[in-house]
Each structure stands twice: as structure tokens, then as C-alpha cells.
Design goal:
By secondary structure, the protein is α/β, with parallel strands linked by helices. It has two domains: about 250 residues, Type I PLP-dependent aspartate aminotransferase-like (Major domain) (Aspartate Aminotransferase, domain 2, 3-Layer(aba) Sandwich), CATH 3.40.640; about 140 residues, Aspartate Aminotransferase, domain 1 (Alpha-Beta Complex), CATH 3.90.1150. It has 14 helices and twelve strands. A seven-stranded mixed beta sheet has the order 1-7-6-5-4-2-3, with helices on both faces. The longest helix has 19 residues. The relative contact order is 0.13. It binds pyridoxal-5'-phosphate. Pyridoxal-5'-phosphate binds next to helix 3. The site of pyridoxal-5'-phosphate has 14 residues, from helix 3.
């Protein structure tokens, strides 16, 4: 069946998801087991212990690999576990180039955990690939980027960074959480490793924490699998099942997220209380041309700066009724977040300001409610927040 599955939705619903061999169950079962009965010593059916392998997880891994266009998928217990797993590709004394506009948790892992293992990091503005080229060195093993970035939605040229990484003998890792495989396939653009927090759009319902890596290179897959088995950052079977169920509707949801986000972004531009609207779908967004080239849409996140500064931003977070104030993004429900103290708390004030995050910045994860209701909710809350 796999060979005939070309379309994204067909792969999301069927890749890795053959009827269960023992019962014919159409939906992949939750294999809630820690171990597997062996026929004899050394004779088994491919599964021996659930940290090393679980059929529910295998189904998810095949599905995600297919959606990202790589041969090997690995599921993890969280996005951060996947990011930690990808960092197994670098060792003591080696060097990582990191795009400075990245998720706060990744920044915390790199600066407060991995630095203790003598991994060296250089932060760079990767929206200019020349800056990346300037800082790679012989011991560089990884170039690490996100695109679009969180929360300012800057675009990084994936092909250009892949070329620089490959030329330096390093791998390009792309955190593709914001774009999702529906809108962007970094491997097809030359990247070597794709990382996801499947907690977000892939899971899609804010009911599970998960992560994933997809690669096409078997050597990389072997290293990552060895490290995950040694360190244990796997998802349980229920969580793998929830992410797999979410993935089936990713395409349908992403189209609607994008429709709502573009409508809301245009609406917010008309609001007096909003000083700036960041959305890559605007033709005058600085990264629009790159987004149009390397993505198949502009995504479901809109970031705004409020004209009334910090006080207005804090009030807005209190006053919305449909947008819930919460960490995370990518669920069917709309979320409002305050990056200064929430998602990007791990950065110093100077670092946040350098990225363009101010005390007036608000991140909106636009959900699947009716767009008119979302516009009304924000218009009312902005007006009540003292523009
Ligand atoms: C871009 C990005 N990468 C990684 C993560 C970490 O994922 P998790 O919370 O599933 O560990 C997040 C979480 O917000 C994220 O936004």
C-alpha cells in the first residue's frame, strides 16, 4: 500500500497503519505492554522490551516519517526529549551553531544543561545565511534553526543553511514544529534532521505531550535510536496513539488554522490598539518571499505588538474570552500567550529585545473556532485594555 500513497492526507491516514495483524483492527491498537513473550531465547517477533520498541509507537513513527519525506521516524516523550535526542549528534569539545531566535526551552537546554558537557554554542542571526557561514568551524557538527521562528515568525532560508552545514561537514537540524510537515518539508530542502514538538499541531488537541525526529540517513537514524534507547526518552503507547490520531487530521486542521490566522491578522491591522502585526502571509512581511518559496502556506500563529505597551498586553491576556491564556500552541482551541514571561522566560531581557520580543508582544495561536468570533473576542478585549 505504501508505494501508492502519494497524497499527504492519504499518508496521514494510512502510512504505518495497516490493519492489526492479529485481529484485523482497522485502527492501530494501544499496545499497553512493557515486555513481549519470546518463543525461545533469541527468538522473538521484532519486539522484546517496550523502551526499545512498541507497535503503536512504530505506527506513529512510520506515519511521521512518511509525512516528512524521510525513511526513519523516532517518537519521543516530548519535544524537548526529541531535541535532547538530536543533540546526541554532537560530543564534548564540538560545536553547534544555533539560530538565536528559538524556543526558550531549547535555549535553556543548550545554555544550562549541555554546556556542562563541554558542547560549545555560537548564537547567530540565521535570517542572514552569511552570518551562519561566518561562524561555522571545523568542529561544527550541527547547525540548528527554526523557521518560522517562535514567536516573531522570522523566516530562515533552509536550503541556504543546509548547504552551509553540509559544506562544513555538519548537519542542519530544523525544528519544524511551527510549520508542520503539511506546510514545510525541511528534508526536501536539504536539511538532515527534522525535529517536532508533536504536542503542538501534529497532536493538535492540546491533550498530549510528544516529540519526534525524522531523518533520511540510516547512519543518523542508528545513532539517534541508540541514544534514545540508552537514555529512555520514549512516549508511552497511549501518547503515541493520541499523536497518531491527531496526525490523521493535520492537513484539514492546518488549512483551517491558516484561513483563520490570515483573516485575523488582516483584521488586527485595522485595530487602533495594535501597533504591529507579524504574519508571514503579508506580502510586506520581511520573510514573505522565503516563506512563499519553501512553505506551502503561512501557518496559524499571529504575533502582535500592542500600542498601549506592557499594561495593555497584560490586560488583553486577562480580557479575552475565547482565546485562553496558556502555554503551548497548535491546538484546535485558540490560545493567547505573553512571550516575555511565558514561552521565552528563559532568555534575558536583552536577548528578548534583540529578537524583537517586547513587553507589548502577544503571541496568538489561532484555533479552529469561527473567525468572526475570534475577531470579535480580540477587538472587544483590545478596546477594553485601554488602547
Ligand atoms: C518550536 C518548539 N520546539 C520545541 C518545543 C518543546 O516541546 P515540548 O513542550 O513538547 O517538550 C516547543 C514547545 O513550546 C516549541 O514551541
Amino acid at each position: 500500500m505504501t508505494g501508492r500513497m502519494r497524497g499527504f492526507q492519504t499518508r496521514a491516514i494510512h502510512a504505518g497503519q495497516e490493519p492489526d495483524p492479529s485481529t484485523g483492527a482497522t485502527i492501530v491498537p494501544v499496545y499497553q505492554t512493557a515486555t513481549y513473550t519470546q518463543e525461545a531465547i533469541g527468538e522473538n517477533r521484532g519486539y522484546v522490551y517496550a523502551r526499545s520498541g512498541n507497535p503503536t509507537r512504530t505506527a506513529l513513527e512510520h506515519c511521521l516519517a512518511s509525512l516528512e519525506g524521510g525513511r526513519f521516524g523516532l517518537a519521543y516523550g516530548s519535544g524537548m526529549a526529541a531535541i535532547t535526542g538530536a543533540m546526541a549528534l554532537v560530543g564534548a569539545g564540538e560545536h553547534v551553531v544555533v539560530a538565536d531566535d528559538l524556543y526558550g526551552g531549547s535555549h535553556r537546554l543548550f545554555t544550562s544543561v549541555l554546556n556542562r558537557y563541554d558542547v560549545r554554542f555560537t548564537y547567530v542571526d540565521a535570517t542572514d545565511p552569511d552570518e551562519v557561514a561566518k561562524v561555522v568551524r571545523p568542529e561544527t557538527r550541527i547547525v540548528w534553526i527554526e523557521s518560522p521562528t517562535n514567536p516573531m515568525l522570522r523566516l530562515v532560508d533552509i536550503s541556504a543553511c543546509a548547504e552551509i552545514a553540509a559544506h562544513a561537514g555538519a548537519v542542519l537540524v530544523v525544528d519544524n514544529t511551527f510549520a508542520t510537515p503539511f506546510l514545510q518539508n525541511p528534508l526536501a530542502l536539504g536539511a538532515h534532521v527534522v525535529v517536532h514538538s508533536t504536542t503542538k499541531y501534529v497532536g493538535g488537541h492540546s491533550d498530549v505531550i510528544g516529540g519526534a525526529i525524522v531523518v533520511d540517513d540510516e547512519g543518523l537514524a542508528d545513532k539517534l535510536r541508540f541514544h534514545r534507547n540508552a537514555t529512555g526518552g520514549i512516549p508511552g503507547p497511549w501518547d503515541a496513539w493520541l499523536v497518531l490520531r491527531g496526525a490523521k487530521t493535520l492537513a484539514v486542521r492546518m488549512r483551517e488554522h491558516e484561513k483563520n490566522a490570515s483573516q485575523l491578522a488582516a483584521f488586527l491591522r485595522t485595530q487602533r490598539g495594535v501597533a504591529r502585526v507579524h504574519y508571514p502571509g503579508f506580502p510586506d512581511h520581511p520573510g514573505h518571499a522565503i516563506a512563499a518559496r519553501q512553505m506551502r502556506g503561512f501557518g496559524g500563529i499571529v504575533t502582535i505588538d500592542l500600542a498601549g505597551g506592557e499594561a495593555a498586553a497584560r490586560e488583553l491576556c486577562r480580557k479575552t474570552r475565547i482565546f485562553s491564556l496558556g502555554e503551548s500552541l497548535g491546538g484546535v482551541e485558540s490560545l493567547i500567550g505573553y512571550p516575555w514571561t511565558m514561552s521565552h522566560a528563559a532568555f534575558s531581557d536583552e536577548e528578548k529585545l534583540r529578537k524583537g520580543i517586547t513587553k507589548a508582544t502577544i503571541r496568538l495561536s489561532v484555533g479552529l473556532e469561527d473567525a468572526e468570533d475570534l475577531c470579535d473576542d480580540l477587538a472587544r478585549a483590545i478596546a477594553a485594555s485601554g488602547d
